[in-house]
Records
---
Amino acid sequence: MGISDDAVQVRTQGWRRLAALHQMIETELERALQGGHELSVVEFSVLDSLSRQDGWHMRMSQLARAAALSPSASTRLVNRLEDRGLLTRILCADDRRGIYTELTPAGRALLRKARPLHDRALRDAVAQAEATPELADLVAALPELTGVGPREAEAAAAR
């Protein structure tokens, strides 16, 4: 049993709309972070991921997954951030092959300064997407994107 041409067309159109939403948001975040703090979106994501870890560190493989990067791309990114003094690498005490990545005080400080700008740019991009007829229903379908979690969405729907 195959998928009808109409079903393929609908899925393809949905995928293009989702890609357009992603691009709109990422472009706004990139513009804001580069202009305000000389950070890329993926650099911010790495700093943010590290800040959310107990002990403030992650294995390089975990970091690559968190940033959706290949191992070699994550190594190059870590090298750049380490050169800027924003993070450091630490050898794992019980596994000599393991390398942890950890935020430095400068990395934590930059993240603290960049987070409000990131959050504001994200809100602006989501508002712009909500105002775009082709994207509004996608934004509505992703309540976490608008800062409305499942409980808030249920409460709003019950009203």
---
Amino acid sequence: MNYLGLSQEQVASTGKSLNQLLANYQLYYQNLRNFHWNVSGENFFDLHEKFEDLYEDARLKIDEIAERLLTLRLRPLSTTSAYLESAKIEEAGKVLDSHKMVKIILENHKILIADMRTIISRAGEVDDEGTIEMIGGFLSEIEKKSWMLDAWHSSRSKKNFPVEV
């Protein structure tokens, strides 16, 4: 048992999932930087600042995830090659269409959200409330950001939104 009262065996599964999230966040972060630098046209003012807000938030989350791994006495991934090997999120490459940028971010969010839900489940199995609380906060934040980006994207792609229940 470590100083948190959790054994390495108990936190191993959570740690693996946290490292997966860390790798995905690194690629997400770089996609956001790419879009921030390359957005232009009529949506420049809307998106340039939004992309900056998102990548600054991602930068903080990356540090918090790595520090949670260290708190659990596990090692965070820390090389670009490890991130590229582990991540499900892919580098966006050259994208110049602002609507496609937002669509890619929303796709990245789906992957991050799935990772977060997995972590919460695995951490719950061993009563790792610290991880659950941290990731739960991340989850509610990214869900709200996804809603806002989807509302922006939907209004510009002429989708019927929202659906009445």
